[in-house]
Amino acid sequence: MSIQIFILSKLMKGNSYPYELEKQLSNPVPLNTFAGLTESKLSYHFESLVKQGLIEPAGVMIEENSSERQVFAITEKGREELPKRIYRLLDGAKNITDMVLGLANLKYVDREKVVEILKQKLESRIARRERVEEIRRQAPIDKENEPLVDLIGKYMKTKGEHTIEWLEELIEEIRQGHI
């Protein structure tokens, strides 16, 4: 879904084709390599989006010393679908990294709806932290494993606290219009 959100968001800005998007991802930092995105993988997703009626062929581009390349445009159905996919991405995100593409495309969604999704995630994280603390207080710990249990507990607590703080900051930044 993330690749298709990426494609749809790029086509909101103007017509394009797989090779052009792959080139954009490679400069100045080779994000295409980090994400494992190749022109063929992008082409597959372009074809899938055409089948879904979210994009359509819009012409042919001939680059110097290259073959013809099919250029695509987003359809009205694609414009309507993009925000829905961004909401689903944010709602289903398991961690902060999963949210990046959705957050990079906030201009296509209702910011208040995004804030509500993030507030639910924040409340869920706070409730989870409390459940873990309660379990930790009640669980008997074998003395032999106590150092390991304490170390893992500290790691989990630090990670959870960081996520809570980050979500609080993110919500505030979106509310203030900084993001």
UniProtKB/TrEMBL annotation:
Gene3D superfamilies recorded: Winged helix-like DNA-binding domain superfamily/Winged helix DNA-binding domain
Signal sequence annotation: none
Domain of life: Bacteria
Protein name stated in the entry: Transcriptional regulator
Species of the source: Lysinibacillus odysseyi 34hs-1 = NBRC 100172
